[in-house]
Amino acid sequence: MLKLRLPEDLDPERFLHTYWQKKPLLIRGALPGFVSPLEPGELAGLACEEEPESRIVLQQAGDPAWVLRHGPFTEADFEALPETHWTLLVQDVDKLIPEVADLLEPFRFLPDWRVDDVMISYAADQGSVGPHTDDYDVFLIQGAGRRRWQIHHRPTSDADLIPGLDLRILSDFEAAEEWVLEPGDLLYLPPGVAHWGLAQGAGCMTYSVGFRAPTLRELAGAYCEDLIQRSVPSHRYRDAELHPTRTSAEISAGVLTEIRGLLDRSLTDSPAERDRWFGRFITEPKPRLLVQPAEEPLDTRTLYTLLQERALLLRNGLSRMAFIRGSEGRDYLYVNGEELPFPSDESGFLEILTQQRCLHFGYLADWLARGECLGLLTELYNRGHLHFDEE
Question: What are 350-379's pLDDT values in tens digits?
């Protein structure tokens, strides 16, 4: 298992206090002995499939200077590319390739729900996606080849972007610092730091561990939509006792009071309900990365027997899990936007279930003697979130 090697004077607590969302950090040899788990041809093969989102960014001499193409691609698309100045990017590779998901383990001093994905880029010589900023934290791991990174710290806005492009590329970039990263080196960048990575030679692969950062408008919009569906009745407004009016265009004080009361009663929920909404929201999968239920559902006894025989259950790479410690004896497990209540006195099982991607029978045996735990494990298997190794 990969381990993150921090400088001697830096532990996770100090990293979060000093650098997280504050300033960049370069760590040479952060992942000792790191070997890229994917070859360039395998990444290109993924970009030809429907599931992952893939893009090619091409820099050229003409107008526009930068071109964005969306996948899925074909072999002919790659054969037509020039020798230099292009980059292939594939999102969510961790959800499809277990060896890439292992790259997330060194960063689990951060909450799982904050992690978005591992994106892998392959760049030909001088390949780049241009100088830009991101609205989220990112760890950039050099996987193969060499890449020069330049950054500056000046604030930027939409006015600084090259107009008319499908890409958010800065028109003016003057580097304040720069480094050339080798395999196993890591560069952390907080949100808003302008950066520009340029491949130094062919075969440059970079693994980007990106973090979810929903906007307040996304949070508010999703919350209100959920609240409306859950709490607001579908019937129409009806007048209270109505009297003739001499000013027909006036909205009376009585009507305004009635409307305020209707909205107050309809759009109010408890802090606990809001917490549970967030659990559902933050674990929702991307539309193209949906989990399919098991082809042959099992009952609890059959699952127990099979797990005893095969020893190991694996989490589906497409499954996002989180849990909330609730009140009144109930905790809540969230899996891909669905809520599964669970007894609080069994919450230790939720910790194991969400922390481990590989569940060993020997480690679970005592828990599985309890009906609630075995029932939850069976439900997750039948929904497709867990599977045996050969499935």
Answer: 999 999 999 999 999 999 999 999 999 999
Euclidean distance between CA atoms 35 and 45, whole angstroms: 19
pTM of the model: 0.91
Stretch 226-243: mean pLDDT, rounded? 87
Angle between helical axes of 361-368 and 371-382 (0-180°, round to 10): 120
Q: What is the spatial distance between Cα 335 and Cα 323, in angstroms, rounded to a whole number? A: 9
- Whether 62 has a pLDDT exceeding 70, the answer reads yes
Name the amino acid, one letter, at 235: H
Q: Are 162 and 63 in contact (CB under 8 A)?
A: no
Q: Contact, 189 vs 132, CB < 8 A?
A: no
* Cα distance between the two ends of the chain: 23
Please state the φ and ψ torsions of residue 40, each to the nearest 5 degrees: -55, -40
User: Taking a C-beta distance cutoff of 8 angstroms, is the pair 144, 200 a contact?
Assistant: no
Structural domains of the chain, with CATH: 12-211 (2.60.120.650), 300-388 (3.40.366.30)
Structure letter (DSSP) for residue 170: B
Rg (CA), the chain: 26
Tens-digit pLDDT profile for residues 139-181: 999 999 999 999 998 989 888 899 988 899 999 899 999 999 9
What is the spatial distance between Cα 10 and Cα 8, in angstroms, rounded to a whole number?
Answer: 6
| Burial zone of 164 (CB within 10 Å; 0-12 exposed, 13-18 middle, 19+ buried) | exposed
